[in-house]
């Protein structure tokens, strides 16, 4: 099951005018497809070489790279927007330093966090099976306190996804805690998920799963030191002015 987002959320994060977008942690390419559909020039990255290979197959016209948020292949000041999922899983300070390096003046970072809407009773039970805490994500503190980015805007977008029995199991497997379980424990949890669906579901017609896309964005601050010289480039030294005899401090005692 691919994790897609509301069109309004993606447009809010990145904009509707054509831009150069660097996607961090592209994964299954669902967000990549949405960015391309909005007309953006997308460079999709992921730390998994296998994921990047799949991305290249799914989106042959999109530039792809195996890279981490903390070490990006892009040259300085080369993209308009950096969009990231799962931002909390990165070394946030190192990632923000890289984001500010590759962003052009006027560019911004965009972060999206997807949560289940646990106001619905069956969704609350599903979240408990996964061990999820029913809390609303806060604005990333590392961005708020960063000297590299300005004020952080925030918005949220509620949306619904139709899931059947297999789709609910696939959604459970997207959770890192479930994906890293040993096979026996994983199968026991999936049995519980299937039982939950059978209690609440509508058979092959599926049921509506409410989710909330929490979105954050912040513009890069243009410091003269925010974009270091590229490798091999020599920084221009400021001209040294020789002191003149009459350059001393003159004090008028009149």
Automatic annotation (TrEMBL):
- What InterPro entries does the record point to? Diverse_substrate_MTase, Methyltransf_25, SAM-dependent_MTases_sf
Which stretches does the entry tag as region Disordered? 227-254
Instruction: Kindly state a single biological-process term from the GO annotations of this entry.
Output: methylation
The family database entries (Pfam families) matched by this protein are listed as: Methyltransf_25
* GO-annotated molecular function: methyltransferase activity
Composition bias, Acidic residues: 243-254
For this UniProt record, the keywords arranged alphabetically read as follows: Methyltransferase, Transferase
Q: Does the keyword Chloroplast apply?
A: no
Q: Which domain of life is it from?
A: Bacteria
Methyltransferase domain segment(s): 21-107
Question: What is the protein name for this chain?
Answer: Methyltransferase domain-containing protein
